[in-house]
Structure formats: structure tokens, C-alpha cells
Amino acid sequence: MSAVRLRRGDYVVLLLAAVAAIGCCIRIWWPRTAGQTAVVVTPYGEQRYSLSQTVTFTVEGNEGTVLSIEIDGGRVRVLDSSCPDQVCVHSGWLSKNGQAAACVPAGVSVRVVGGSQEIDGVTA
After folding, report:
1. Residue 42 pLDDT more than 80?
2. What are phi and psi of 24, to 5 degrees?
3. HSE on the CB side for 2, CA within 13 Å?
């Protein structure tokens, strides 16, 4: 079995791949800006709420699913949901621009907007 020798072009490709990987890591972990507005999208429309207020409210989704949403201290979360999986509740507090939580069975999503638009590791 003979040893594999790298050529000059191989080193260039490896260098470019390393630079791209480092760039992606920096972009993913770059700090996001604080959001200003919570956008709640339901099957019946869209509502916007300022993150500067303190309020808890309910929204209705598909098939009678009810979600309780809380805004407090410049952040928003799904406090409670009547859906079976509770993925939206486990998303926790959202405060940075671009963060979102969704209750797929209910057809409801909550996202934070405002400030400069940032991308996350999923959309990068």
C-alpha cells in the first residue's frame, strides 16, 4: 500500500475549508441584538406586542388548542399549551431578534423582531 501525497491544490482546498468553518462558527455564536416586538401568528391572524410591557394572554389555535403567552422584562415565552408535546413551552424565554417558538399542532408561532436582523445556526 502506498502513502497518499497531498498536492499544492489539496492544501488550498483544505485551507479554504478551514476558513469557511471558522467563519461559520463565528457567525453562529455572534451575539444577537435584543428584540423589540413579539409577533404572535395564529391561524386567525397576526398580533404584535411590545416587549416593554408586562402581560399574559391566551390565543386559540387549530382544533381548540389554547396557548398562554407571557411577556415580561423584554422577553416572551409560551407559558402553557394544551397541545400534547409541549415543545413550544420548552422553548423557554425568547428575547433576541430572530428567536422563535412554534406550536405545530395549534398552528401558532411566536417570534421576536426588531433591531438588526440576525441569522441563527439553523438558517446559516
Report:
1. yes
2. -65, -40
3. 3
Is 20 inside any structural domain? no
Q: Which domain holds residue 108?
A: 37-113
Residue 57 lies in a domain: yes
> How many CB atoms are located within 10 Å of the residue 116 CB?
8
Q: DSSP secondary-structure letter at 94?
A: B
Q: In the chain, how many domains are there?
A: 1
- pLDDT (tens digit per residue) in 1-30: 678 888 889 899 999 999 999 988 777 776
| Integer Cα distance of 48 and 20 in angstroms | 37
Give the tens place of pLDDT for each residue, 43-74. Answer: 999 999 999 999 999 999 998 899 999 999 88
Whether 4 is covered by a domain: the verdict is: no
CA dihedral 5, 7, 13, 16 (to 10 degrees): 110
At 17, list the grid cell: 475549508
Position 77 in a domain: yes
